[in-house]
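Progress narrative, Year 2. Work on Phosphatase from Anaeromicropila herbilytica advanced from sequence curation to structure prediction during this period.
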Amino acid sequence: MKYIDLHVHSNVSDGTLTPKEVVEKAVKMNLAAFALTDHDTVMRISEALNAVKEYQNNGIDLELIPGVEISVAYKSKDIHMLGLFLDYQNETLISELQAVVNDRENRNIKMIANLQNAGIDITLEKLVESEGDSIITRAHFAKYLLEHSYVKSREEAFKKYLGEDGPYYVPRKFITPEKGIELIKAAGGIPVLAHPLLYKLPPKELDSLISRLKNAGLVGIETIYSANVDFDESYVRKLANKYDLLITGGSDFHGANKPLIEMGIGKGNLRIPYSILEKLKEYLTNK
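Result:
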């Protein structure tokens, strides 16, 4: 049996491994394929592809699916849309994602000012210095606060300083779900609703949201996921069947930023069969 992982992050967004190191991890975990889905960016997918080619040239069978995880607006919060099998060189996609990144950077500057007013010694330069080319997210803020002893854990950082309900948080401007789906499809990709149960929506509201997204061109829904418990997977499978959506699966691997989640196996019992990838490929062939 061959296994895959269609939701993986590198340090280009809020993971801790470089794209090349993510490829090395995939080989170590004996995966047949994985998708690199960094937040709001397709930067350095080529780096991962080059690393995969080196392994392939040495007889190791590994596939990389170029992807992205786009934050889109839903009421007063954001939801996440995965794009799989993207043309990561698509100019429109790159331009629109850069606009999203620019807005994130403006938000970061405002959050830094709020934290400075609270007596925290933090600047954008210090964050960038420690994170290199990574797109700075709240995960990087949490890392900084922890490393500089303002908090004792990442959880405390979010609860005390970075949470959406806190006094230092600055909301972002998000594109609409319809726009996110449009961008993914225009780049030749498959739009997938990521981890639908993490949004904690009442069942009727979640059903209504999926109906709306389906009408906008949604193709898949992330069904096999690290955070699933009890009957979560079967519940999402029913939604997939109801709206004729393809199922996908992913660990949401972030390296040390989510230490309990391992690539390919999640919290230990995650298994995503290669047959799921075959159905996605079949969709692309027949669309």
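The chain has a mean pLDDT of 94. The chain has two domains: 4-96+174-286, 101-162.
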